[in-house]
Design brief:
Aldolase_TIM, globular, alpha/beta, single chain, about 35% helix, 10 helices, two-stranded parallel sheet, 8-stranded mixed β-sheet
Length: about 300
């Protein structure tokens, strides 16, 4: 009788466990009556907020204070950045009434400082610039005491669109670099490091208060962060935010390193030493964190 060898089943390969978040990255869940009031207004007016779409860790703190960052031009982005939780695809909506509704919501919320951002709309000839301008203009008409920051996307060198985007009368104009130059192809495959610097330079040349943000923990080296600071200062940047990258889903880039708060503090000192006028630096810092303070930075 033929005897066959017994084949033992092989165990399934186990994926390596993701690094556990350190204690300094723990945040409280959003609760309280002020948060609930903002939640209700956002839902009633059918508004998109980057607080939700971007899974911002500061949503509880900011909404609890009665503020929010509104995302205009829909919630589907034409880009496929490997760090971002916003949905990617072909946007189906272009709501020309959105500027009015956003302005009305800001007025109802009695917001003292509003931050506006958007998805990329590369399929639109003007990149959505007219909606940007109208949202700022309508908000200023309904809430003349409200200061505004606009966190604008990459216009892909459509400088005419940029001129329209920044013409509404906002106090701060931000465009995020997101990462250092060597990681652009990995992090922002449809972006270009030099093109984003040029966008900031052109904004500054028109006399605006300029701002940008960089995520840390993607594998960048210290000297690359310093070089990015130098590049931004050379192109007219006033305000820089530095925060910890957090992986939104398993489909996105993994965190290469959790940066210690002491390192963030040293980067703040280094940025100021290199000529930046204001640096917001910490593990939980995001683009709109403490944004109301940035309107006082001298141009």
């Amino acid at each position: 009788m033929l005897s066959l060898p017994i084949i033992q089943p092989q165990p399934e390969p186990v994926a390596p466990a993701r690094a556990r978040k350190p204690d300094w990255l723990r945040v409280k869940l959003p609760i309280g009556p002020d948060y609930a009031a903002v939640r209700k207004l956002v839902d009633e007016h059918k508004l998109h907020t980057i607080c939700e779409s971007g899974n911002c860790p500061n949503m509880g703190e900011c909404w609890g204070a009665g503020t929010a960052t509104f995302m205009i031009l829909g919630n589907v982005c034409t880009r496929s950045c490997s760090f971002c939780a916003v949905a990617t695809g072909r946007p189906s909506e272009l709501d020309l009434d959105e500027p009015r509704r956003v302005a009305e919501a800001i007025s109802l919320m009695k917001v003292k400082h509003a931050v506006l951002t958007s998805v990329n709309r590369d399929e639109l000839k003007d990149r959505g610039a007219s909606v940007w301008r109208d949202t700022v203009v309508f908000t200023k008409e309904l809430s003349p005491e409200t200061t505004i920051e606009t966190l604008i996307p990459d216009v892909k060198a459509n400088w005419a669109a940029l001129d329209v985007m920044i013409s509404g009368g906002q106090e701060v104009i931000s465009h995020n670099m997101e990462t250092v130059g060597s990681l652009y192809r990995l992090v922002r495959p449809q972006g270009k490091y030099d093109r984003s610097l040029e966008q900031i330079r052109r904004t500054k040349l028109q006399g605006h208060r300029t701002k940008s943000g960089i995520m840390l923990g993607l594998g960048e080296k210290q000297d690359e962060v310093h070089q990015a600071m130098d590049d931004l200062v050379a192109n007219g940047l006033d305000i820089l935010t530095l925060g910890q990258y957090l992986q939104p889903t398993k489909r996105h880039l993994e965190v290469a390193e959790f940066i210690h708060p002491d390192t963030f503090a040293r980067y703040k000192e280094e940025g100021l030493r290199r000529g930046l006028k204001y640096v917001e630096s910490g593990p939980l810092v995001r683009s709109s964190y403490h944004a109301e303070r940035h309107v006082n930075v001298p141009i």
